[in-house]
Specification:
Elements (H helix, E strand, L loop, with lengths): L4 E4 L5 H12 L4 E6 L2 H15 L4 E5 L5 H14 L3 E6 L21 H15 L3 E10 L16 H8 L4 H10 L8 H22 L5 E5 L15 H13 L7 H11 L10 E4 L8 E3 L3 H4 L1 H15 L9 H4 L1
Parallel strand pairs: 1-2, 1-4, 2-3, 4-5, 5-6, 6-7
Antiparallel strand pairs: 7-8
Helix pairs in contact: 1-2, 1-9, 3-4, 4-11, 5-6, 6-11, 7-11
The structure holds NADP nicotinamide-adenine-dinucleotide phosphate.
Amino acid sequence: MKHSIALVTGTTSGLGYAAARTLAGEGWREIIVTGRSLARAQETAAQLAAETKAQIFTPLELDLDTPSSVQSALAELVKLGKPIDFLLLNAGLVPFKKRVLTAAGVEASQAPLIGHHQLTAGLLCANLLSPDARIVIAGAEPARGGVPMFKYTDVPAFAAKYHGGDRTAAVEALIRNEPNVRYVPNNAYADAKLIIAWWVAALARRLPSGMAVYAVSPGGATDTKVVRSAGPLLKYLFIPIVNLIPGMNQTPETAARRYLQASEFGTDVSGQFFASAQGKFSGPIEAQRQPHLLDHASQEAAWQAVVKVSDVDFSSAAPLSAVS
Ligand SMILES: NC(=O)c1ccc[n+]([C@@H]2O[C@H](COP(=O)([O-])OP(=O)(O)OC[C@H]3O[C@@H](n4cnc5c(N)ncnc54)[C@H](OP(=O)(O)O)[C@@H]3O)[C@@H](O)[C@H]2O)c1
């Protein structure tokens, strides 16, 4: 891929910041960096420029919780008029001890995917992705299971119990944390990252040939702000214990490099979820093959649920309400 224009979401701290800095080191010509407010994005761009001694960072306001903010960001990108080669959808969070819903009624850790879907669809519709663009979205190991303290929902069973077998309705219930979903923050996070893995598989089937999308877990990098809102058990017990185990934690730079590595992958592995080997949070990444991740019906149900909640149909990238 030519190292021309990259857009990185969630650059105000942690892995997004590290990724933007690393991209600069690799000779990218322009890097669009986002923050929830223009002031935060500008501050980040200035800090990155000072650190890297490169005037290549363009600040962009983007609050993924707020559809109007995504629309304004898209309008800015249309004004810039430069096709993006690498779209790094990094923003995300381990959610709060108490359930938080956005104004649009989306659970906080699910909200970045809804905003990222709106952004991606809008860029495709505006022809603002290069013909061989790479899209990488942040995943995490809990989506495949086997991570202590995190448990994803068995969607087919949940759908059968509460939604007459309708998996789309079941995924929507998870995204909105509806009353039949017991709120456990770590499980909400595992579900958010599982729905991301499914969304990626479904998006890959819809992208123009030449483009590719991957979910990539950066792995463990506890020197970021990712668990700032999480409960004390995770913050003060689980993470310190994990940090004591050799090879379970990495620097933000090493973790962010995984995103860049995936940006060089081919279209043959588009739609896959890459993460650490089973039982690890660092080291080489590999494609995840757990049957629940590869379940076609769940992938399509997740896609339909995201389309419904975001109110953005991919084929038109217009709000569904506007086209119906
Ligand atoms: N660090 C790890 O060990 C680890 C492991 C696996 C996966 N991940 C994933 O890696 C990604 C980056 O995490 P990190 O460790 O770098 O955490 P971080 O230091 O907290 O950075 C997260 C970034 O995302 C932004 N963000 C979050 N929600 C947003 C929203 N709704 N709209 C706009 N911006 C939003 C944050 O902005 P604000 O500061 O304004 O909220 C911040 O810039 C996340 O998706 C996370 O789930 C991290």
